[in-house]
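Q: Can someone sanity-check these two? First one:
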Amino acid sequence: MPQTHPAIETATTAAPAPPAELTLEERLTLINTEMTARLDEAAVAYEVNTAHIDLEPVDLADIITDPVDTGPAPLPDLYPTPVAALLQRAHHRLLTGGWCKDALVDAEGARCMLGAIRAEARGDHGLENSAVAVLLEAIRRKFGDVDSVPGFNDAFARGRIPIRMVDQAAHLAGARDL
């Protein structure tokens, strides 16, 4: 006899809908919430792990101090000869004290090329004249026929080239043992 199986009724239920994709705002909110929870947990762990450490309060005045004003760095003696050393000092004066045009010294204390040489010569007119002669020669080597050091100085709006020429004149005087 053929065996019959009772009919099994299967209830057809709809498959669960896939979760809706989160928007960017929802994902950022979720990540922010998770990170806040992690940071709170880490803060508690830090407090627990460091509670036994006895610390004295630190006075920041003992740690943070103002720099000591020592003035400008001393100028190294690069040139042993007097004219080269004078031009080196004049170059340093122009770098630290400032450069000007149309005056030996302006209201702020900046100097032109000749003013810097004169200040560093300290009244030694022979040394001053020698330095100016070497400077004029260095200028003429680079720029051709130039009438005078003050005329060259005043032809520029900025001091970059005149200051560099004083440095090159110091090198020239040093090479000539002047």
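And here is the second, same format, sequence then tokens:
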Amino acid sequence: MQDKVTFEYAIVRFMPKVEREEFFNIGVIVFSKRKKYLDIKYHINPKKLEAFSCEITLEEVTKYLKAWESICKGAPHGGAIGEFEVSDRFRWLAASKSTMILCSPTHTGLCDNPQQELDDIFEKNVL
């Protein structure tokens, strides 16, 4: 139990029309303060995307998610947010939004390996 660390995660959702509140899961963000870990994993099912919105392309959604990925990595091209502390970047990404890409409420847990948790949560909730 001593090797376990706390982690937080949020499910990334695609909601093309926020007024309708219809969405499908496209990714997961996992954060662990002790491990200084923040990463996102995503997959957009093209058939679901087309069923939800014919106006938004796969390339557009992918572009937004790549920006989120840059923020997770703290990359210079992640903008000013990419320069924030790891915990602040997670809070900014997971904050409540009225946009087509948004997150579920955050959830917490204990784990040995945040990367493994990201993979497991992704497989259970996105694929």
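A (reply): Looked at the second one. The longest strand covers residues 5-14. Residues 5-111 form one domain.
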